[in-house]
């Protein structure tokens, strides 16, 4: 096979196959083989899209002493240096990734992104961190800093409180140690390599 072989060039330049249906009701197994093959390609690029979205936080200060990307990196750095495992550190890295599109509910965005790849406990921490972080500033805005107390009896209350106290709330220091996004990239790719749970994950036969 040579690279200037016309059949090779035609194969490379051929548009990707597409499903034939115009209504999903008419979809066939072949249609879904085509879509399924592309789904594998598309999902393999998820970490790239997450990296791109994290970079949208670069230079976005929102009045804070450091921009949102640096805050995310510093939160993850604090968790990593504290010996937390990859999954936890990736949650720390992504916990504010929803600020751009979920400006009124940013923890929900991050929680949805990490959900297939992390434990229910880590997912809960990310999902609730906005309420728990509020303990440190809601009272300055006329809000209830004890909003987290609605979860006081929850088994993961202390874990969420700890995440904010140890990693999120202290991570606004312009002089604070902050690893680069490149340093976290291999860890992000490892954690997001395959989902632990998803409605699209085949059920084992048996
Ligand atoms: Fe947050
Ligand atoms: Fe944060």
Sum up the structure in keywords.
9 helices, binds fe (ii) ion, 206 residues, mainly alpha, Hypothetical protein af1432
Helix proportion of residues, in percent?
40-55%
CATH architecture title of one domain: Orthogonal Bundle
Oligomer: single chain
CATH topology of one domain: Hypothetical protein af1432
Put simply, the count of helices is 9
Q: Could you say which small molecules are bound to this protein?
A: fe (ii) ion
Could you list the spans in which at least 5 consecutive residues all have pLDDT below 50?
none
* Name of the CATH first level of one domain: Mainly Alpha
Tell me the CATH superfamily of one domain: Hypothetical protein af1432
Estimate the global geometry from the Cα principal axes: elongated
Strand tally, please? 0
Structure report:
- The chain has a domain at 50-191: Hypothetical protein af1432 (Orthogonal Bundle), CATH 1.10.3210.
- It has 206 residues and is mainly α.
- Helix content is 50%, strand content 0%.
- Helix 4 (68-81) packs antiparallel against helix 5 (86-94), helix 6 runs antiparallel to helix 7 and helix 7 packs across helix 8.
- The mean pLDDT is 94.
- The protein contains 9 helices and no strands.
- Bound molecules: fe (ii) ion (2 copies).
- One fe (ii) ion is lined by residues 95-96, 106-107, 129-130, 133.
């Amino acid at each position: 096979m040579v690279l200037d072989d016309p059949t090779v060039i035609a194969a490379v330049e051929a548009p990707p196959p597409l499903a034939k249906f115009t209504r999903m009701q008419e979809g066939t197994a072949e249609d879904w083989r085509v879509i399924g093959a592309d789904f594998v390609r598309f999902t393999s690029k998820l970490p790239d899209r997450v990296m791109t979205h994290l970079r949208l936080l670069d230079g976005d200060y929102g009045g804070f002493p450091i921009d949102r990307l640096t805050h995310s990196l510093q939160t993850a750095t604090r968790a990593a240096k504290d010996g937390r495992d990859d999954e936890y550190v990736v949650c720390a890295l992504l916990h504010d990734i929803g600020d751009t599109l979920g400006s009124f509910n940013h923890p929900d965005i991050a929680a949805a992104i990490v959900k297939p790849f992390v434990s229910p406990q880590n997912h809960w921490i990310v999902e609730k961190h906005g309420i728990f972080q509020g303990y440190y500033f809601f009272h300055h805005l006329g809000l209830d800093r004890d909003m987290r107390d609605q979860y006081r009896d929850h088994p993961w209350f202390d874990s969420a409180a700890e995440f904010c106290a140890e990693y999120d709330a202290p991570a606004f220091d312009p002089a604070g140690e902050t690893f680069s996004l490149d340093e976290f990239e291999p860890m992000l790719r490892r954690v997001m390599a395959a989902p632990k749970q998803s409605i699209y994950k085949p059920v084992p036969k048996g």
